[in-house]
Specification:
The chain has about 550 residues and is α/β, with parallel strands linked by helices. It contains 19 helices and 25 strands. The strands form 6 sheets. Strands 1, 2, 3, 4, 5, 6, 14, 15, 16, 17, 18 and 19 form a 12-stranded mixed sheet that branches. It has a 4-stranded mixed sheet with strand order 20-22-23-21. A 3-stranded antiparallel sheet has the order 7-12-13, covered by helices on one side.
Length: about 550
């Protein structure tokens, strides 16, 4: 069996100008990064505003397990299937991070014959967007420390610096560091912290900004510290906005690539959903909707994280109204949720499936609360039995969902025809009545409580003393109208990664709450989730190599 990277490297790619032509993008509106990658010009994006919009399809999943779900693979395969059916479709995805690539997850461009290419470029440096975000983030950090060193005219309290440096790599030793050691000229000694680039507020801002004007306004609102009197200090106060925007000028433009079957893919932005808001950029999604009749996008991890944030943060801010949701599961993952060890998942076990399907049931219920029609798809494995598949089919149809098998890893777009047909049927027969989960006017605690109870199934919420004080302060500063971005483990509906299936009788534990004022949301850290991941005992980096001809291996 060929690996994903072997399949990708054997593919014959179309010149990116030919891919762009499918969407009506003139070659002169492309900024080329070689033959197979391009950015779409700002002028062309501005010209799309008066065009009618296509239909928006969100792909999400059950909680991830070591058995694998294949959400991105299904997203890509669905786009390819639409293309085979003669539909004008585009896939809109996030950019992969180097952290998981060299850590435990591997690449993030789909799999098998449902991949985005050039696979190696996307997974490594792509067009430099993450580098630009990292540089802008750390420029702000440098200007902040320099201001304190050069007289501290703003009266910044070094004990209340909240802006963190970032790096697009899993590096646990950078979570908590001390800076400024050495001579007086080396800066003030203080505790500092790093987050992974995908958790940087700059990433969120880039993904939510409408244009350069909006980007600069959002950058200016970033709260970096507080004064000795408790007043917030912003990036605008530090005169950092212009230089940061200059670094982000090209990163603000969406990237155009293709699938193995030459379906257009717009890839832009990459916040994680477990520690950030988990969606690709508003600019990319809006552009896709103006260029195609069908837009397939995804939100990270399970629907309790990615889909909730897609709806309550991205759609709220951008005025988007999704037309349908595809919920991805696998028989293997459901049996894992039912208590079967990973080594035993190849064997039929209807009783374990019956127990584990409670996880899928909760995600269906959650998605239906938003008023959007749901299509459930099983990402097919050769070990799945007919009895297992039929059990899931009957379960989903009994809950008002269309159901389809997806065989896109093995067959590409051909293996996604059944799913594509069910999605089109849903779009034709079921109207979306999209609604948000909570109103802007709810208090911070009310918003957190609604998400915890209605989406996670918690009995309630507990707060650390520090979180209680932080919420009171943020509400006093006028930030209570912001939506809440919950930072939570992706492996469970709860904040405890060990609780699989559909846990009951638990509380969500909030340990810290802070504002991302430029992005326009509050972040609530729950359980033991970290904004700077670490590497596993045997990182994926051990298996990655490049030969004398420049051919990369080991990217899964």
């Amino acid at each position: 069996m060929k690996s994903d990277i072997q399949i990708a490297q054997e593919a014959v790619l179309s010149p990116i100008a030919e891919v762009a032509a499918q969407l009506g993008i003139p070659e002169g509106e492309l900024e080329l990064y070689g033959r197979y990658k391009a950015k779409i010009s700002d002028a062309y994006l501005a010209s799309l505003k008066e065009r009618p919009q296509g239909r928006l399809i969100l792909v999400t999943a059950i909680n991830p397990t070591p058995a694998g779900e294949g959400k991105t693979t299904v997203s890509v395969g669905l786009g390819e299937a639409f293309g085979r059916m003669g539909k004008k479709a585009v896939v809109a995805l996030r950019e992969p991070s180097l952290g998981p690539c060299f850590g435990i997850k591997g690449g993030a461009t789909g799999g098998g014959y449902a991949q985005v290419v050039p696979m190696e470029d996307l997974n490594l440096h792509f067009t430099g967007d993450f580098h630009a975000i990292t540089s802008a983030n750390n420029l702000l950090a440098a200007l902040l420390d320099n201001h304190i060193q050069q007289g501290n005219e703003l009266g910044i309290d070094p004990r209340q610096v909240v802006w963190k440096r970032c790096l697009d790599m899993n590096d646990r030793v950078l979570r908590n560091v001390v800076v400024g050691l050495g001579a007086k000229a080396d800066g003030m000694v203080r505790e500092d912290h790093f987050v992974i680039t995908v958790a940087s507020e700059i990433m969120a801002i880039l993904c939510l900004a409408e244009d350069m004007r909006d980007l600069k306004e959002r950058l200016g609102r970033i709260v970096v510290a507080y004064t000795y009197s408790g007043e917030p200090v912003t990036a605008g106060d530090l005169q950092a906005v212009g230089a940061m925007a200059a670094l982000l000028k090209d990163a603000l433009k969406p990237n155009l690539v293709q699938t193995l079957e030459h379906t257009p893919v717009i890839v832009h932005g990459g916040p994680f959903a477990n520690i950030a808001h988990g969606c690709n950029s508003v600019r990319a999604t809006r552009a896709a909707l103006r260029m195609a009749d069908l837009v397939v996008t995804e939100a990270g991890f399970g629907a309790d994280l990615g889909a909730e944030k897609f709806f309550d943060i991205k759609c709220r801010m951008a005025g988007l109204k999704p037309d349908a949701v595809v919920l991805v599961a696998t028989v293997r993952a459901l049996k894992y949720n039912g208590g079967v060890a990973k080594a035993d998942l190849d064997h039929e076990d209807l009783e374990a499936l019956r127990r584990g399907i409670a996880n899928l049931e909760k995600h269906i219920e959650n998605l239906q609360k938003y008023g959007v029609p749901v299509v459930v798809t099983l990402n097919s494995f050769v070990t799945d039995t007919l009895a297992e598949t039929e059990f899931v089919r009957c379960f989903c149809e009994a809950r008002g969902c269309e159901f389809a098998l997806a065989k896109v890893w093995e067959k590409g777009g051909e293996g996604g025809i059944e799913l594509a047909q069910k999605v089109l049927k849903t779009l034709e027969e079921k109207e979306s009545h999209f609604q948000l989960l909570y109103e802007d006017g709810c208090s911070v605690r009310e918003k957190i409580g609604i998400i915890a109870r209605q989406i996670y199934g918690a009995d309630g919420v507990t707060y650390s003393p520090a979180a209680q004080k932080q919420i009171d302060r943020l509400e006093a500063l006028g930030f209570s109208r912001f939506p809440v971005c919950m930072a939570k483990t992706q492996y469970s509906l709860s904040d405890n990664a060990e609780l699989l299936g559909r846990p009951e009788g638990f509380c969500i534990n909030v340990r810290e709450v802070y504002v991302s004022a430029g992005a326009g949301f509050l972040v609530a850290l729950t359980g033991a989730v970290m904004t700077m991941p670490g590497l596993p005992k045997k990182p994926a980096a051990y298996g990655i190599d490049v030969d004398e001809d420049g051919k990369i291996t080991g990217l899964f």
